[in-house]
Amino acid sequence: MLTADFDRLGVIPGMRAIDVGAGLGRHTFELYRRGADVTAFDQNADEMRQVTEMLAAMEAEGEGLPTSKGEAVTGDALDMPYEDGTFDLVLISEVLEHVPEDTRAIAELVRILKPGGVAAVTVPREWPEKLCWKLSDAYHSNPGGHCRIYTAEELGYKLRAAGLEVTGTGFAHALHAPYWWLKCAVGTENDDHPLPRAYHKLLVWDLMKGPWVTRTAEKVLNPVMGKSIVFYLRKPAEA
Fold it and tell me: Per its record, what are the GO molecular function terms (predicted)?
């Protein structure tokens, strides 16, 4: 399940990419499949261990291209161990809403991105997220949870202020928004309730099978109720 559109980002074999806040690696693995030299970067050491194991399995199965390389690194997104202008592509997906010092995190992303490089930043969309917050305090009050709701204007301003050009925006995961509304309504820890359980089965079916009916529905609904907003960005080339 990808939030960013790698075709819009122009991912090509051999490009140096970093997936910041990679989690269990959903974007990292797709970058690897497309031939990138990709780093998964996250503060969770256990998840980075699992990503390392999966990358090794993918290499063994020949899932990538001849240019594919992958590594997983544990670290702090506010202080990343890379030289200025290291990466051709920087991705941070569904992370900034968790980070109290978001402007500092954005500055680090810009620092490690090459002049002329591209980036994608995704966060929960304002109105679906507001509904989740209204339905459930637990959704946003747990340690490490969401600490803010971005408006598109606010996040766009912060990204431009950090030195990035916004080249486009998009929306993703419309079918996931009702699932989270259901979860928030019945309790985020209530995994036994029949409504979210049934809806989750639908999402798994969609993920595994990709039937035309759900794929078409999501494309139609994304502009209206996509759960995530995606900013596509470019760092200006040096004069």
Answer: S-adenosylmethionine-dependent methyltransferase activity
